[in-house]
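re: ur question from yesterday

yeah so i grabbed the chain u mentioned. its 305 aa long if i counted rite. heres the sequnce exactly as i have it in my notes:
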Amino acid sequence: MIRTVESQPPMSAPVLAAYSYCETVTGQQARNFAYGIRLLPTPKRRAMSALYAFSRRVDDIGDGPLANDVKVTRLEDTRALLTRIRDGAVDEDDTDPVAVALAHAAEHFPIPLGGLDELIDGVQMDVRGETYETWDDLKVYCRCVAGAIGRLSLGVFGAEPGPRGERASEYADTLGLALQLTNILRDVREDAEGGRTYLPADDLAKFGCSAGFAGPTPPQGPTSRAWCTSRYAGPAPSSPRATGCSRCSTGAAAPVSPPWPASTAASWTGSSATPRRCCAAGSPCPAARRPMSRCAACPAWTPGM
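ran it thru and got these structure tokens back, copy pasting raw so excuse formatting
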């Protein structure tokens, strides 16, 4: 395969300076991301830096110390700037380098700038402290703050022709949803301590978590764990014979061959070298894949027992 180098017509000094500013912002604020996009052809790297710099501005408004009414005003000002960029009303000598760079990138790549409108919508949801009644409500928020970034990036990266490429936007949304849900689950305690809850109210009520999440301390024990299991692992099989394991359909524990060398298992402290499955029927316990003193999904079950 012959590798081609993408190029663009020579740029004016103001546009080059604008891109340089955006690349500096990216390098200072998102070092890992900056290292990753260094592998892109120069035009794509510059365009991604412009997208990052604009998105970072939106995020900084939402996360900053300003009063909420001031944040809302700043976000609407940013949306008005985005409208100018979309309408081609930003000149090369504009005093805002991020606007100049993004306007140039949008002229040369099919960037769906509506994704930045969605990002602003999502940050406004945070500023207003919105909560989400249903799973579908939460997905809208995740699509705005994460899925939109994937779709914007596709405008620069491009997609392969054919059926898979036609679904690239859908894949980007799905990946963004997964990443944002990971962030939400990771920060449940921190958000709850700050009086913020992202998890859907109907799901929390279903598993008895609503009262706990209304206070400064998130709920402990099987209620919050049950929510995660039902939402991400699907419904667990139930049986009157199950003992000590919500995933077990027989109540029996069957040993399985360790997927790691015996020498490695021997070096573990406080862990069993003989992991087990939850039941003879073969439903795998998460502990069968890694050394643990007990299974995270089944707190009453201990490997090796």
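noticed a couple things. The beta strands are 254-255, 276-277. also The first helix runs from residue 13 to 29.
anyway ttyl
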